[in-house]
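FIELD: query
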Amino acid sequence: MATPEAAQPSAASITPHTGKLGIMIPGMGAVATTLIAGVEAIRRGYAKPIGSMSQMGTIRLGKRTDNRTPLIKDFAPLAPLDDLVFTGWDIFGGNLYDAAKTAAVLDRDQLDAMKPFLESIEPMPAVFEERYVKRLTPKHQKVGKNKCDLANQIRNDIAEFKAKSGTDRQVMIWCGSTEIYIEQKPVHQTLEAFEKGLTEDDPDISPSMLYAWAALKEGIPFANGAPNLTVDIPAMRELSKKMNTPICGKDFKTGQTFIKTVLAPAFKTRQLGVAGWYSTNILGNRDGEVLDDPDNFKTKEVSKLGVLEHILQPELNPDLYGDMYHKVRINYYPPRGDNKEGWDNIDIFGWLGYPMQLKVDFLCRDSILAAPLALDLCLFMDLAQRTPSLRGLGIQEWLSFYFKDPDAAPGVYPEHDLFIQSMKLKNTLRHIMGEDLITHLGLDYYGE
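FIELD: result
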């Protein structure tokens, strides 16, 4: 059924993507350098944007018989890759060519073909607090009298980048290391309490929160590629609504969790039980080194553990999932580098309770999977900022597709099923462009 005309937005209300889009990245390590080098390789015609829904995905419009299936980038007014300008912050200094060599994700020959471009980008000194990431030692760090001072230094960096780069719009995406696990405290509950905490140097305000606060204060959408508590607190939601600036979920859904959000919906749809799901990972990049600390691993563990509970809903399906045992481990193994290996042993049961097993061994490349997600998020968050019916919402739940830990309105459980997330994303694009939503009901093919 078509959306009533009065309630249906018009694509004409979306502000055009004129000028350049600045992508601002706290943490310019493996994911960031892979993203930036990849975008440049695609711009030069060296490679294809494989893994990016925004660039290679299509969207069906109307009935199946209408044969209207454009590329998403040709349907929605997304910023073209030629308009992207990159900057960011990092605790190690040096230019992006050196950082990409250290990350060792991309081949040296591929990097050398873009050496002048990568050398032209030098990260700014970063805000860092060793309490939150104990395994790293900064070499390129901001110094301030308190957290308010540090946050305002970030705002000054943003203003300087706007002036020097000539960008018309900006998006910020956190690609820094996973911070230690913290729970919400009084300082996180209201914007007033948070800003008071900035001046009082509150220990429960993390570096990632400083970046998020600075971005939102400047009207810049913020996305979080790591699992740490950042914008998913009442204070940031309040600021997001106040500034009419989008926020979204956290922790890129790349390897093992991506597979979980594919397999778990299949088990649930077929009403197959799950007795246990054991997941372990070995990885050797900087992410693995950071997660080798128990406090940082706890942050990642909480993010990864929530997926199955939300998809399988054991409280609604106690006979199938009520006694499920779910275990997640991450092991630092330096020889692996960025090429993570995820093992899953899944004990399922079917008709009359008879047991079965699945074993999955995913030899994945973490940053290769994460980079196109980061690109899509930047482009879609910029679109949300230019779309009146989206930017005022604050949380962009339609972007749950990209996260292990999607954000949702208070009191609403997040949707983790990859296929529902994909439908939600595409229907949101249809909605803002004034197209009918697709329900897949299909009965209109069989009427008189």
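FIELD: remark
The two ends are 17 Å apart (CA to CA).
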